[in-house]
């Protein structure tokens, strides 16, 4: 079964529990007991009385990746699994557990440090311990791959299961699942976070690090450098401050150190009030630094390790008087007048650093194990200032602030040639992501844009004249103008070489810019990101006075969306009531539509007075969102030419009088070849409005590979007496079930009475038969496990009080309502893609309508289906093992 589940640390090579008994030879082979304090073990298996109690231990292990080792005594050894995320008391959390070699019984008491260079090097504590009781014969259960047991520990208790995934990993991968009982906890609190300490000593991992001699820290660093081929470097040990605990008595764990940065929103007005702190906006690279075990790492926003690029900065951070810390700041290159210069920073990264780079630090997220993020910013900065060097002239500098008159501060910043200022709420905690607590106000506008082409240089064919720039909007790459200044001779040559490697014949911009049709234009794959400075935008959304500042190697091209300065950030508003949503949105759009409509004033939704022109206006507003799900797909259309309240009919095939803007494709159907319609663009979409189409249904495959679906749909169709909350619960159940099979899903409100759970499939390798068989298996097993709740048959007589899990959408020729399509119902609801976070019992299937959908789309900060067409996941193979896994997962749901 193609479940690709792996855990890389520690390695679990050549170990399998299929044979139940493993000697300690593998354990001893991997360790040098003259170097490590781990117990060697006698290798003798003690005899146990029939009623002897079996011990268990869970050890928290900070190897190269933090994980938890679950060990169960059996046959005189400790059967062991490495659990990356640790045990969870939430039955919905199915935690991967990778079988590793047997450990000796003495290992249950081991706490301490495994030296650098040794297998599993890192700190270990006994996180939990106690007695375990198997429900059935444990040896037989392990051989069958389904071990049920009860724990009686100091932290963990209740009933648990270990289920083996007999896949390509040789049976090493298991799932550790908490059963539903009194010890279960579904409130979202993880015991690994709330109780991180040892049950033996009360120590944390950080405390064990403190107890190590400085020589150990240096030895570990040197060993890692030797692995990379770096020379040995002697370093002096520094005295570290003791680890502190925060107000809740917990330390900042290794897993928490992967912190996403807090981001600022673009604003045009400086906020007022004494609670605001105003800082200089630097023109450099935003980096978060983690200091631990005498080693400093520098991370970009995309979690790229750039320590090697700024070795001088990392060396300076190691000298700080702290055992551990997390700093947030920006690395800049300063010009002679002290202003940050992005071009100089680019030159420095290319090896021509004329002046030392500086790390301006503006926030402190952790210090000596204490999580400072809940503290107000003003307190975090006070501690940061005390930590950093006092000179203010070295590689590390404190980013000072001004409180009070931010407008004057901005004016002075602009006169000095700075990029702008950042205004922050001094009384607020650190919160990852973008919010109104941090605002950026710019002097000169700057944006990241993607290079989509260039013009050839008439003077030198090794160089270019201008760069053609754009950004991604949904699946389209939009043109933003050209830039022809800001390059030096070396960049003109080196960048041209990179562009030549990406030349393509077809224009990547959609639509093709009319001003870029000359013979000198060359198109390239939109992969390289540039930093552009400019004064504004024209009415055609083209840059004014752009200047090239440098490359943005820390950004991916697909992350560059519509520029903030072109379309300022909008807040994601709280969910309104239906009445509020309709009232606050325009009931009828008056925007001009260039399309030859007949009878544009014909009323299609009489209860609302919405006309054909209103429907066309809606189609135009959602076209960029909707077309990616229509392109190249055969359509099945519900037409209501006289309006929703009158006669409607389905049309699948092209007929006389069908608008030419709709593309035709030929499809074999049983004994004949028929013509279907496809809407690939806005004219095609508007043609559907002209035809009075109130519902657009699409195939689950595209015309280029018609026999291979690229998504899977579970249509949850409740009987009239089933409450909506049960439909929502079922959607989450199917989401978790498919997640256990490595399939990520997306929810969609159908606009009717149901809900769709959709799983994208890429690459397209499973045919319709396999897709139907897989979805049918899921539906039937759910109906068998919960016969009072679900049915997998179409018979309406059998649906009373139940939810029909309709898997038949996954059959050749079957269709599903398209995302953003209207429905032929009186209030003009629409089929709306949402996120799992949004899905709740108070969000009914028909909540979003033609009248309030535009408000929703304008308020979104991020497309809830952003990754839908980017995911790489395929349908698991249907076999007995898969059915067993599904059955076990359903039983534990």
TrEMBL record:
Matches recorded under InterPro entries: DNA_ligase_ATP-dep_C, DNA_ligase_ATP-dep_cent, LigD_ligase_dom, LigD_PE_domain, LigD_pol_dom, NA-bd_OB-fold, NHEJ_ligase_prk, NHEJ_LigD
Region described as Disordered: 213-255, 554-593
Gene Ontology molecular-function annotations: ATP binding; DNA binding; DNA ligase (ATP) activity; DNA-directed DNA polymerase activity; exonuclease activity; metal ion binding
EC number: 6.5.1.1
Species this chain originates from: Anatilimnocola aggregata
Keyword field: ATP-binding, DNA damage, DNA recombination, DNA repair, DNA-binding, DNA-directed DNA polymerase, Exonuclease, Hydrolase, Ligase, Manganese, Metal-binding, Multifunctional enzyme, Nuclease, Nucleotide-binding, Nucleotidyltransferase, Transferase
Required co-factors: Mn(2+)
Record's protein name: DNA ligase (ATP)
Basic residues biased stretches: 235-247
Domain of life: Bacteria
């Amino acid at each position: 079964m193609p479940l690709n589940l792996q855990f890389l640390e520690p390695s679990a090579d050549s170990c399998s529990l299929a044979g139940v008994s493993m000697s300690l030879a593998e354990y001893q082979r991997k360790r040098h007991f003259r170097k490590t304090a781990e117990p060697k073990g006698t290798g003798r298996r003690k005899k146990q009385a029939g009623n002897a109690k079996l011990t268990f231990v869970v050890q928290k292990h900070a190897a190269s990746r933090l994980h938890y080792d679950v060990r169960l005594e059996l046959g005189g050894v400790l059967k062991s699994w490495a659990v990356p995320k640790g045990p969870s008391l939430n039955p919905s959390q199915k935690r991967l557990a990778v079988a590793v070699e047997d450990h000796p019984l003495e290992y249950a008491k081991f706490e301490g440090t495994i030296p650098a260079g040794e297998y599993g090097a890192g700190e270990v504590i006994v996180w939990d311990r106690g007695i375990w009781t198997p429900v059935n014969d444990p040896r037989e259960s392990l051989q069958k791959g389904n071990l049920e047991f009860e724990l009686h520990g100091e932290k963990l208790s209740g009933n648990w299961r270990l289920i083996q995934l007999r896949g390509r990993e040789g049976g090493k991968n298991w799932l550790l699942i908490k059963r539903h009982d009194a010890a279960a906890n579904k409130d979202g609190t993880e015991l690994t976070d709330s109780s991180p300490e040892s049950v033996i000593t009360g120590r944390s991992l950080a405390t064990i690090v403190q107890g190590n001699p400085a020589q150990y820290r240096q030895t570990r660093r040197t060993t890692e450098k030797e692995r990379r081929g770096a020379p040995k470097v002697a370093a002096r040990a520094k005295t570290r401050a003791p680890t502190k605990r925060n107000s809740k008595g917990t330390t900042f764990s290794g897993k928490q150190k992967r912190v996403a940065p807090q981001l600022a929103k673009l604003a045009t007005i400086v906020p007022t009030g004494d609670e605001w702190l105003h800082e200089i906006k630097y023109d450099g690279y935003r980096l978060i630094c983690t200091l631990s075990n005498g080693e400093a790492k520098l991370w970009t926003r995309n979690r790229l390790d750039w320590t090697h690029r700024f070795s001088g900065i990392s060396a300076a951070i190691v000298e700080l008087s702290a055992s551990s810390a997390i700093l947030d700041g920006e690395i800049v290159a300063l010009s002679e007048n002290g202003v940050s210069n992005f071009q100089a920073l680019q030159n420095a990264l290319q090896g021509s650093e004329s002046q030392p780079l500086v790390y301006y630090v503006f926030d402190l997220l952790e210090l000596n194990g204490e999580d400072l993020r809940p503290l107000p910013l003003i307190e975090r900065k006070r501690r940061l200032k005390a930590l950093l060097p006092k000179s203010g002239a070295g590689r590390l500098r404190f980013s000072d602030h001004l409180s009070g008159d931010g407008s004057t501060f901005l004016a002075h910043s602009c006169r000095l040639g700075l990029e702008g200022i950042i205004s922050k709420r001094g009384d607020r905690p650190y919160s990852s992501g973008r919010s109104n607590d941090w605002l950026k106000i710019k002097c000169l506008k700057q944006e990241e844009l993607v290079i989509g082409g260039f013009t050839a240089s008439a003077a030198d064919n090794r160089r270019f004249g201008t760069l053609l720039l754009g950004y991604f909007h949904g699946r389209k790459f939009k043109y933003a103008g050209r830039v022809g200044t800001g390059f030096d001779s070396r960049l003109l040559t080196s960048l041209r070489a990179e562009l030549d490697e990406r030349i393509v014949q077809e224009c990547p911009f959609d639509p093709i810019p009319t001003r870029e049709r000359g013979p000198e234009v060359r198109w390239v794959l939109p992969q390289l990101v540039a930093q552009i400075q400019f004064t504004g935008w024209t009415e055609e959304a083209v840059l004014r006075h752009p200047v090239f500042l440098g490359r943005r190697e820390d950004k991916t091209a697909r992350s560059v969306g519509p520029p903030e300065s072109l379309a300022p950030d909008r807040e994601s508003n709280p969910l309104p009531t239906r009445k509020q949503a309709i009232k606050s949105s325009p009931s009828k759009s008056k925007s001009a539509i260039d399309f030859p409509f007949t009878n544009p004033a014909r009323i299609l939704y009489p209860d609302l007075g919405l006309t054909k022109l209103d429907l066309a206006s809606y189609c135009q507003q959602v076209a960029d969102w909707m077309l990616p799900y229509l392109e190249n797909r055969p359509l099945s259309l519900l037409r209501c030419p006289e309006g929703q309240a009158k006669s409607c009919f389905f049309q699948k095939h092209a007929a006389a009088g069908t608008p030419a803007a709709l593309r035709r494709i030929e499809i074999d159907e049983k004994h004949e070849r028929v013509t279907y319609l496809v809407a690939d663009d806005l004219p095609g979409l508007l043609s559907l409005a002209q035809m009075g189409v109130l519902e657009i249904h699409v195939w689950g495959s595209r015309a280029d590979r018609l026999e291979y679906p690229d998504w899977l749909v579970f249509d949850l169709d409740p009987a009239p007496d089933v409450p909506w909350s049960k439909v929502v619960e079922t959607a989450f159940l199917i989401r978790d079930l498919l997640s256990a099979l490595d399939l990520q899903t997306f929810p969609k409100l159908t606009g009717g009475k149901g809900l769709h759970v959709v799983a994208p499939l890429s690459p397209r390798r499973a045919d319709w038969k396999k897709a139907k068989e897989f979805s049918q298996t899921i539906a039937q097993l759910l109906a068998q496990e919960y016969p009072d709740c679900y049915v997998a048959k179409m018979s309406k007589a059998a649906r009373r009080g139940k939810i029909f899990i309709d898997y038949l959408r996954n059959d050749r020729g079957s269709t599903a309502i398209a995302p953003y399509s209207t429905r032929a119902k009186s209030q003009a609801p629409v089929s709306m893609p949402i996120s799992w976070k949004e899905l709740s019992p108070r969000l009914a299937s028909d909540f979003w309508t033609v009248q309030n959908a535009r408000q929703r789309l304008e308020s979104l900060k991020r497309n809830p289906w952003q990754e839908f067409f980017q995911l790489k996941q395929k349908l698991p193979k249907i076999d007995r093992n898969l059915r067993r896994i599904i059955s076990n997962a359903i039983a534990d749901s």
